[in-house]
Amino acid sequence: MEVKLAFAGFGNVARAFARMLVERQNDLTRDYGFRFRATAISTNRHGSILSPEGIDLIEAVDRMERGESLTGLAGSESVADSFSLIEQCDAYILFETTPLNVENGEPAASYIRRALDRRIHVITANKGPVAFCYRELRRLARTRSASFRFEGTVMDGAPVFNMVESCLPGARVLGFEGILNSTTNIILTGMEEGRSFDECLMEAERAGIAEANADYDIDGWDAAMKAVALANVLMGTEINPREIKPQGIRAVTNDDIITAARRGRVIRLIARGQQVSDEVVISVAPEEVMKDSPFGAVRGSSNILKIKTDLMGEIAMLETDPGVRQTAYALVSDMLAVFARMREP
Ligand SMILES: NC(=O)c1ccc[n+]([C@@H]2O[C@H](COP(=O)([O-])OP(=O)(O)OC[C@H]3O[C@@H](n4cnc5c(N)ncnc54)[C@H](OP(=O)(O)O)[C@@H]3O)[C@@H](O)[C@H]2O)c1
User: Fold this and answer.
1) Backbone phi, psi, residue 276, to 5°
2) What is the DSSP string of 174-223?
3) Residue 72 DSSP class
4) How many angstroms does the Cα of residue 333 sit away from the middle of ligand 1?
5) Inter-residue contact 326 to 333 (CB < 8 Å)
6) Helical residues (DSSP H) of 6-67, grouped into ranges
7) Which residues line ligand 1 (CB under 6 A)?
8) Which atom of ligand 1 is nearest to the CA of 324?
9) How far, in Å, from the CA of 150 to the mean position of ligand 1?
């Protein structure tokens, strides 16, 4: 079976995914019986194209990485923007990887809404729409018999949502805590080694890990959006991200880090979702933890998440040194879940 794919956003994550798809094309066909054809790509500054005959993904990746427009790619026609693209494309799956917007999750949420409405399955790595509109988008997906998947929104390709959905049936999630933002962890652990805040931030930006607006990382917004997404999906809350007041790491100084080290401690940005009375409270703040504790040992871009459940007690997941390839894998794993669903009678 041939599956047509569309992309809204073709940045670091989507391009890593495109390379992975091409690299694994033969295995996917052999193991899952699907071939794919990319028929639509939209961007912000590099043009938006449709190509019913199929886009050469590697040529599209190369063009973007040379800073060239996609417009004019062989066999393609240009469209005005992502909305026109979603309206006109004949894709089965839309991969939504546009930048995070912490004000309202837009325009990504509207791209997803429009695609689901057209019965196009949607896979996103963008936590904004999940934090702001999870219930609405899940309901829309169900009414349109489409899938809405988002494994890459928290801890990249680590199977956070899939683990709870598939491996903890019957258990209720009571709370969670984690180090969920790679950029701030690169900065905090880099400062422990005597490097400057700005130097470490540049390292995260060079690796394609930092948000397009790195203030979202530094001021705790990225971690807060992930925490809200976890609470809304795993704990059934309807928390409005605008109610969260995250505290980021902007005020953490080298002196704070040295003082903590004298006490055998390190500073980590910790996101929590805790049941307090009958509500779930989200917090994001830098905290001192023991250097040799599980959280203290998490360095660089690594992430950790501990989930508390009623029937299974506490369970933790550690992701070591992720980069964009791990987020790309989240799109692959979600795509295979959609394929599995497409096979269902
Ligand atoms: N990078 C990571 O490690 C990582 C990990 C987990 C999740 N995520 C999430 O994945 C998403 C993508 O991240 P990324 O690193 O790939 O970002 P990125 O490199 O900044 O790429 C964003 C892409 O979206 C396009 N775009 C921007 N605004 C748009 C709009 N209004 N409509 C359509 N396209 C638009 C950009 O086009 P131009 O290139 O023309 O500007 C670019 O192609 C983000 O939501 C991020 O939070 C990223």
Assistant:
1) -125, 115
2) EEEEEE--HHHHHHHHHHHTT--HHHHHHHHHHTT-S-SSTHHHHTTHHH
3) T
4) 19
5) no
6) 12-32, 57-65
7) 8-14, 42-46, 82, 97-100, 107, 125-126, 152, 156, 208-209, 211-212, 324, 327
8) 3
9) 14
Q: How far is the CA of 14 from the centre of ligand 1 (A)?
A: 8
Distances from the Cα of 246 to the Cα of 217, 263, 270, angstroms: 11, 26, 10
4 catalytic residue (yes or no): no
Q: From ligand 1's centre to the CA of 235, what distance in Å?
A: 28
CA 14 to ligand 1: nearest atom: 16
Please name the residues in contact with 322: beta carbons below 8 A apart, sequence gap of 6 or more: 155, 156, 157, 158, 182, 209, 301, 302, 303
Please report, for residues 20, 148, 185, 268, the alpha-carbon distance to residue 303 in angstroms, rounded to integers and kept in the order given: 22, 24, 8, 11
d(CA 151, CA 104): 20
Angstrom distances, CA of residue 208 to CA of 18, 35, 181, 227, 285: 15, 29, 13, 22, 24
- Closest listed residue to residue 328, CA positions, set 95, 100, 133: 95
Per-residue pLDDT of the chain (345 residues; tens, 9 = 90+): 899 999 999 999 999 999 999 999 999 999 999 999 999 999 999 999 999 999 999 999 999 999 999 999 999 999 999 999 999 999 999 999 999 999 999 999 999 999 999 999 999 999 999 999 999 999 999 999 999 999 999 999 999 999 999 999 999 999 999 999 999 999 999 999 999 999 999 999 999 899 999 999 999 999 999 999 999 999 999 999 999 999 999 999 999 999 999 999 999 999 999 999 989 999 999 999 999 999 999 999 999 999 999 999 999 999 999 999 999 999 999 999 999 888 887
Name which residue sits closest to atom 19 of ligand 1, judged by CA: 11
Q: Going by CA atoms, what residue is nearest to atom 44 of ligand 1?
A: 99
Catalytic residue (one of 4, 127, 226, 308): 226
What pTM was estimated for this model as a whole? 0.96
**Contact residues for 241 (Cβ-Cβ < 8 A; gap 6+):** 102, 131, 132, 224, 225, 228
Token readout for 83 is 């909305």
Contact, 102 vs 128, CB < 8 A? yes
